[in-house]
Design brief:
Layout (H helix, E strand, L loop, with lengths): L1 E3 L5 E3 H12 L14 H33 L14 H32 L14 H23 L3
Antiparallel strand pairs: 1-2
Length: 157
Amino acid sequence: MPATLASGSELNLVELYDVVEALRRGHFDRRISAGGLTGRAGMVARTLNATMEMLETLKAEQLRIANEIGTRGELGCTMEVFDATGGWLEMVDAINRMSTGLTVELRRTSQATAALAQGDTSKRLTSELIGGEVAAMQGHLNEVADRLARSSHARPA
């Protein structure tokens, strides 16, 4: 069922519905045929396709980051979506802030743990970027270092 939009170009409403329904269901690989469409109909088709492409890119990047950090344990990765603006950019920045915060705090914790394993009880951690469970883990590590330091001072040399 075609719909006329301003310039006489016809946009197939069934095809438009199919793409919008795919969007609603989280299937970002669908596109509307924009070939030959001019005026408002062409604008609608191209804008919807660009939106679907951005969502597909964001999804792929988010899945990549989740796999690298959450499955492979690789820290320091960030999302790369070069044409993101507005709310899209806010989402990219939020994921990147999370990745950076985890990277910084986990690397600091790893360094302090490695020092402790080698007998250096002088390292103390304060969570700079993340609170909650990460800060609690760092606090526990500080407690272990304190106990080891006290026990090594209590032993006769």
